[in-house]
Every structure is written in structure tokens, then in C-alpha cells.
Amino acid sequence: MIKVRNLCKSYGSIHALKDVTFHIDDGEIVGLLGPNGAGKTTAIKTLTGYLQPESGTVLVDGIDVLSHPREVQARLGYLPESAPLYPELSVQAYLKMMADLREIPRDDQPARLSEAIYATGLANHLTRPIGELSKGFRQRVGLAQAILHKPKLLILDEPTVGLDPTQIVEIRRLIRRLARHSTILFSTHILSEVEALCDRVIILMNGEIRADARLSDLAQTSDVIMVLQKSAPRVAETLTSVTGVRGVEPFATRDGFPAFRVLGEENTDLSPQLFDIAHQNQWQVRELRRDVQTLERVFNNLAVAA
Ligand code: ATP
Known about the structure:
Elements: E1 2-11, E2 14-24, E3 29-33, H1 40-47, E4 55-60, E5 63-64, H2 69-75, E6 76-79, H3 91-101, H4 109-120, H5 135-147, E7 153-157, H6 165-178, E8 183-188, H7 191-197, E9 200-205, E10 208-214, H8 215-219, E11 220-228, H9 235-240, E12 245-252, E13 258-264, H10 271-280, E14 285-292, H11 295-305
Helix pairs in contact: 4-5, 5-6
Bound molecules: adenosine-5'-triphosphate.
The site of adenosine-5'-triphosphate has 12 residues, from strand 2 and helix 1.
């Protein structure tokens, strides 16, 4: 659905995007995660054809955004960081205006409008001026305009920024519903947003992609946690001598059982070997599992390394 290659964009001396390359398949919901100033908005504006990069290519549904921005914009739904809503217009009047601007044929408009209004839960707010709505409902109006023309691709720039916790839950629920019919790329600086909404994340820092992976793969480590029923002699030394082990960190579990974090070399799964060794040494194993890391740990490690 989206193919981005070697995208570069600078503002004077600030390199906002440095050789950014990624792709998003049909039906995926992908989070573009990064701290403030990472380049998320710049990337999104470039993908949607509202900003020209210095170099690189962007294909959306096979169409080159740089040479055919209008065609691409007609196919995608875009919620900018601050949606240009008109405060004096009623919700209904605004959405009708957007339907006209989108050139949705008159005959199709009633059905499209009611679908978007139903999907975003705006039915009871149609006659209210947009300026009087809460921020959460204004965001819903922004989403309603983005899905009016039933786009196959939705691009949302920080869709929950500035919302209260209840509104955040509602907008996330709405995004999840929209994901049943569209490919979605959204930007955020909130780790829990990515965990709540998607199974793949692209982490952008200082204009560079630092990670692009499924959350389950990011969480996976090569370390193994072994918990014993009771202590045994020379466990740490024995484990350290195993091929593929970088180190062993003994610790006690919360309920007091002797435990060992066995640090594995990259891309190894030590579990079967450790299980055999425990068996040979007659250690009573209470638990043996691959260690996982949180997205927060991944993100912090990348930030420290940057
Ligand atoms: P945030 O989460 O704070 O919105 P972001 O990840 O969306 O940040 P961008 O807004 O893309 O980041 O900004 C990337 C870098 O480019 C920042 O250093 C920013 O200051 C700079 N920048 C963005 N827009 C402009 C502009 N119009 N003129 C000059 N510098 C800009």
C-alpha cells in the first residue's frame, strides 16, 4: 500500500528525514513512533503529498505521490495534526462541504455521510457548531472527513494528542474499527498507543528509522530465565560454560526461588540446551522461558544509543 524509498527532507540545516525507507502492506495497522521532533509529521506530510522531499520516492497504492499528489490524496484519508475544521460550521454542514470538495457524486453523498457519521458516533451532534464541541468530538469530525470517500488507506497524525483518557479510549476504539476496512498508518509519541493499536511499529528518531518490526519480534530476546525449585551447586558456572551463552545473572524471584538470567548471543534460542543441562545435573526446574522486553525498554535503549 505504501512504499517509501530513501526519503530525505531538510529545513535549512535541520535534517528532518535522513534516507527513510519502509513499506506498509495492505490491511496493516502500523504505528510511526518517535519523540518530539523525530520527523513524524514531516514523514506524514511527505507521504500525503503536502510536502516535497529533496530526494526519494513514495508510492501509494502504486501511484507516485511526488508526480501525482492529487490522485494519491483522492485515494487516502488524512487526519492532520491539527485538522483545519471550521468552528462556525455545524458538523453536518462541514461534512457536506468536505463531501463536495472530495467530489463525491451527489447521489452517493447521503449514504457516504451517514456511514461516516455512524462510524464516528456523531449522529447526536450534527447540528452543533464544531467550535462548541469537545476536543474528542472535534477529533471524531476530523476522522469522519477522512473516511467520507471510503479510502483504502488512512494516515493519522497523532490522532489522540491533547485528549483526556476517556476520549483516548474512544478514539482508539474507533481507529480499531476503521482498521477492519482500511490500511492505517498513524504517528504517535505514546508507547502505550502503539501497544494498544497495532502489531507493527516503525521507530523514528532524529529523522532516521531505528526499528521496523512486529511488536512480538521486538519483545523477543535471546535471553532465557531459569528458575529452580531449590538451590544447587555450581549452577551459574555450569551455565556460563554453555556455547552461545554471553553471561549469567543470578537473582531471586519475588517468592524467593533461585533464578538465573542466561544471556544468549544474538538470534539464539538456548532453551532446549538449558533444559538438557538441567536434566543432566538433576536441577529441579520450576520455570524455563525466553525473556521478553517491553516496548519501553526497546525505545529507551534506542534513545540511549542515538
Ligand atoms: P512532534 O511530535 O513534536 O510533532 P515530529 O516527530 O512530528 O515532532 P517534525 O514536526 O516532523 O517532528 O519535525 C522534525 C524536525 O524538523 C524538528 O527538528 C523540527 O523542529 C523541524 N521542523 C519541522 N517543520 C519545520 C519547519 N517548517 N521549518 C523548520 N524546521 C521544521
